[in-house]
Amino acid sequence: MKKGFVYTISLIVMISVLMYFLIYYNYHITDNYNFVIKSTKPVKINYVVDDITYSLNSLLGTSVDLDLNNNLKINIKDNFTKDYNLDYFEYFFENNYAEKSNINLDLEFFDFSNNDYNIYFSNNLIYNYNKNSKFITIYNIHNIDELDINIYVKDVNYIQQWTYSSTGKYVKINVYDETGLINSSDGYINNVLCNSNTYKIFVSTNDNNVILDLCDIFYIKENSNTDVDFNLSLIENSYTDDIFAYYDVNVFLQIYDFNYNNHLIIDKIRH
Amino acid sequence: MKKGFIVLLDVLVALLVSFLLFAIISQYVFNVYTFDNYKYVNIIGYETNVLTVLEKSNLFYDALENNTTNNIRHFLNRTNKNVCAELTVYDSSDNLLFTVRKQNCQLTDSYNVMYRSFIYNNNFYLAKLVAWYK
Question: Which of A171, A197, A196, A203 is nearest to A185 (CA)?
């Protein structure tokens, strides 16, 4: 009777040890598996956000590229000839794209319309495009040290340059038309008042112009009814923070049980 | 002696049953979490990279602009040799525009699908990439 009891106990112990290893192994495998599967979610989320951003950039004809070493360089490429339909963009992504990709997606456009949109930067810079008034304005540029402007204007007749000073923000400007580079200049601009010292590019077809002004804001005003494309680089020296740029578009994204709710990030660099 | 033998036999049978139980349950566990599940992660990485490069290198744009898929085919054929892929492009009304499959690849039952949107001339398109291991 005593022997039988010992054997029974031994058997229970042996089975318990086996079961323990089984449960441990099962837990270990499941845990690794879940870790690997979960690791794909950020990849998918980043991929979807990148896809939406790149498509929106394509639709607008706008691109923003951030470069950060010791200095911050914000590159913005844009034009005045846009004809986009935000409603269809939203419909396409929330329905066709989301359904095929097996995700839940909701896009909310705030400071954004078919005629007007903003790009926000984490250093408080705001880029505004307004189709109706044909204005592109950059606000909060007080920390910008240098501005490189490459502008293409079709059918240039003549250029009325601004007056450079000995202090202020350093500006380099290159003007191109269909024949190539037609004017290049650089120097310091220290405009206290807007509209007091502007750069004007007149076109030959109608004697209208494109106006550039650097004061407490930077703006390009398109009066010429011709093709205008530009590439701006705004440089802030000795920049020591992270930087990111975003559209004021809220993205709510659900992949499996994981939710993402954020602005539509265009580019991001950690210092 | 006889009792001891019976008990020993009993223990051996019990152990055998335990091992069998362990083996059966382990087999079930192994079948759920096979190596194929981990391959899925690599396939997603392959698909997201390929689709992103195709869009950002303007290969979708070239295909629609010039009405040829040669550059896309050339690009797909140069990607990972152990992965097969088939790319199909649809317009926003789901009409199939073209399909390109990597050379020497036959579709299997085990594959993964990813999509990428792109815009050409203000029109919306979807590219579907099906990828699987050879």
Answer: A171
Residues of B in contact with A3 (CB under 8 A): 3, 7
Dihedral, A71, A49, A43, B121 alpha carbons, nearest 10: -100
CB A71 within 8 A of CB A237: yes
Query: Which of A92, A65, A259, A87 has the alpha carbon at shortest distance from B117?
Result: A92
Long-range contacts of A120-128 (CB under 8 A, 24+ apart): A120/A245, A120/A246, A120/A247, A120/A248, A120/A263, A121/A74, A121/A243, A121/A244, A121/A245, A122/A241, A122/A242, A122/A243, A122/A244, A122/A245, A123/A72, A123/A236, A123/A239, A123/A241, A123/A243, A125/A74, A125/A234, A127/A64, A127/A76
Token duo for residue B73:
């085919």
Q: How far apart are the C-alpha atoms of B45 and B43, rounded to whole Å?
A: 5
Confirm if B18 and A15 have CB atoms less than 8 A apart.
yes
Which residues of B are less than 8 Å from A36 in CB distance? 37-38, 41
Cross-strand pairs, A214: A218
CB of B55 closer than 8 Å to CB of B118: yes
DSSP assigned state of A207: S
Q: What is the pLDDT of residues B21-67, one digit of tens each?
A: 777 776 666 555 555 666 777 899 999 999 999 999 999 999 999 99
Q: Choosing among B26, B46, B53, B124, which should be mutated to test the A contact, i.e. which has the most A CBs within 10 A? A: B124
* B100 closest CA partner among B61, B66, B127: B127
Name which of A50, A83, A101 is nearest B122 (Cβ-Cβ): A83
Whether A27 has its CB under 8 Å from any CB of chain B: the answer is: no
- ipTM of this complex: 0.80
A187: distance to nearest CA of chain B, Å? 36
pLDDT in tens, A76-126: 999 988 888 899 999 999 999 999 999 999 999 987 888 899 999 999 999
Which chain B residue has the Cα nearest residue A83?
B122
What is the model's pTM?
A: 0.82
